[in-house]
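Structure ticket #2291
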Amino acid sequence: MKTNFLSRLLRLDTLQKKGDGKRLALRYLYSALGVLLIGFGCGLVVEIALGCDTYTCFNRGLWYILTDIFGSFAFGHINLAVNIILFACMLIWGRELIGFGTLFNMVAVGYIIDFVQYLFRCASVSGTELSLALRIVIIVAALPVIAFGGALYTEAELGVSPFDSLPLIAERIAGGKLGFGLLRTLEDCFFLTGGLVFGLISGKQWELVNVGTVILALGTGYIIAYFRRILPKLA
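Resolution: structure written out below.
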């Protein structure tokens, strides 16, 4: 039983004919690269303090509240904790979406964001010291990077994060009547609202919800949908 579960989780059960091994290795590359792009893109947006992606906005808002109560701890910890809570939804409605990409994204993205901020500190550079024009350019550039990363690891079909699974599950439940772009945008607006509430409580609302948050909330879903249409199919 354990072997069968592990085989499905790693998609080893897809190795049925010649060439499948090479194709699966490429899918793993897609998945890992996609998660890394998401993490670094989100980290850059966080560092320039003009908002952040909506899921990070929600989790950082909660993180600020909890660090005020319990003291400092890594943001990656709270990101992982919220992922684990949302993972319950996948276990109920989207088990087929669970795989390597799910686990890698759940664990890695929050800590990659921490790492990007660490790199800025090591370089003795603060994103807030950059000119406003350059910070806006970074946001505009980060949007397609994050969206491409999301599309890349989704199309690898090796599993998606709990957050990314929600619009996919909703799209299936809606029978295709509602597109992924719209559903992802609605999800982003929901988490943006939650992040704003947490921000108001912690006094960090403008750091969490700013021009970057709005751009990412309105654009990410549709750009992911576009990239998913043009990426070559590997599965």
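Closing remark: The two ends are 24 Å apart (CA to CA).
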